[in-house]
Amino acid sequence: MGSLVWTLMNLVTKVFSRKVTKGLTNKSWKAFTGRTPPVNPASSSTGWGEAVAFNAFSGALSAVVIMVISRKAAGYYEKSAGHLPSKLEE
After folding, report:
1. What is the domain partition of the chain in residue ranges?
2. I need a surface site. Which of 10, 26, 50, 79 has the fewest CB within 10 A?
């Protein structure tokens, strides 16, 4: 497997992660706060505290989801190719 395969896998991983994160963020925000997530945190109708909290929460959750799914993809690549992608080797 070459770097092109890993590049494609990585792209699909990021797109999939984004879809998973959006739903997970909305459900988790509602579960933790009891409120629906702000439609647009940048809107003046959303208070600064809620906007900052929502963006921090969604950013952290997004980073964790991307890391977990990327690690799974790298593990699959390693199992299939017998080595990690060159971009991930230390």
Report:
1. 3-81
2. 79
